[in-house]
Amino acid sequence: MSAHEVVIPVIGSRIHKDHGYALYSAIKQALNVKDDFWSDVLLRQVNGREVSDHMLELTTTSHCVLRTTSYQKARKLQRLAHRSVSLLKEKTRVNITFGRPTTLIVEPHPDFKFRIITIKSKTGLRGNKALFRAKIERRLADAGINYDRLDIHVWKWILCHNLIGGYEVRIYGVDSESSIRLQSECIFAKTSMGAGFAERI
């Protein structure tokens, strides 16, 4: 199994902290391809410097990452180069432009982290930690992911004066085949837990 990672510089002034859905929708509209195209495309949100509780400042290293198991889809995602899109959220509109993409082959890696938002109070999250861990372990087992150790931590994020809660899942000692699957498939999609993008650590 192989997977491809399309890394795209993002140029502009600022972007909303919680921009994932708006960005994904804007990318879909910009490429204008059929809905089934996106079935195995994963998006990592744009990185930036936090300037308020709802905005990020874009820097020279700001970029988004799209992963897919299809080389043909990776080629189509490169068409985003030099396109501009507008994102509207909480009555605030921002404009960004995509730079020249770089496409990489996804390589095996042993250790990963996911952040999964559950939008509960921090106290509630601590109380449900064992149940959440059991769900994660079951989901990984169903997906055939082999690993040595799993750690789960509570994390919090301030967004528009609201506390957003969730878990950071860290997985260590993943074997090569499982590593590629973990980076390219929606392991946690279509569950009550939400979806997580596997970041290498």
Structural notes for this entry:
This protein is an alpha+beta fold. Helix content is 24%, strand content 36%. It folds into two domains: 4-105, 2-Layer Sandwich (Alpha-Beta Plaits), CATH 3.30.70; 112-200. Strands 1, 3, 6, 7, 8 and 9 form a six-stranded antiparallel sheet that branches. Strands 11-12-10-13 form a four-stranded antiparallel sheet. Strands 2-5-4 form a three-stranded antiparallel sheet, with no helix packed on it. A hairpin with a 2-residue loop joins β11 (149-159) and β12 (162-172). The two termini are 22 Å apart. Residues 190-194 have low confidence and may be disordered.
Apparent shape: globular
- As for the CATH topology of the largest domain, it is Alpha-Beta Plaits
What's the β-strand tally? 13
Question: Which band does the percent of strand residues land in?
Answer: 35-45%
Instruction: Return the string of H and E elements.
Output: EEHEEEEHEEEEHHEEHE
Share in helix: 10-25%
- Mean of residue pLDDT? 84
Number of helices: 5
CATH architecture assignment of the largest domain:
2-Layer Sandwich
Separation of the first and last Cα atoms? 22 Å
**What is the total number of structural domains?**
2
Text of the CATH class of the largest domain: Alpha Beta
* Biggest β-sheet strands, sense, barrel: 6 strands, antiparallel
Question: What's the alpha carbon Rg, rounded to whole Å?
Answer: 17 Å
Q: Indicate the structural class.
A: alpha+beta
Contiguous runs where pLDDT drops below 50 for at least 5 residues: 190-194
